[in-house]
Specification:
78 residues, mainly alpha, 86% helix
């Protein structure tokens, strides 16, 4: 039969509680850090992915138009 040591039981309980508190604190720090990063990004007034894609499409169309006009001009100059 194994004798129970109340001191070790108490110590194990304290360690378990401390690990839970540390885990919770870590999650709170992570959440707070993510929140601050989101706020910083929002303050930077960056373009969204959708806005960049729209501008990219406009640039491609403009480039195609310029190339078509250059080819037309080349034919007219001949």
């Amino acid at each position: 039969m194994v004798a129970k040591n109340p001191l070790l039981d108490d110590l194990a309980g304290l360690m378990t509680g401390a690990m839970g508190v540390a885990r919770t604190a870590g999650e709170e720090v992570k959440t707070m850090g993510q929140s601050r990063i989101r706020e910083a990004i929002a303050d930077m007034d960056l373009a969204t992915r959708e806005e960049v894609e729209v501008l990219k499409a406009i640039a491609v169309q403009a480039l195609e138009r310029v190339e078509a006009l250059e080819a037309r001009l080349e034919k007219l100059e001949e």
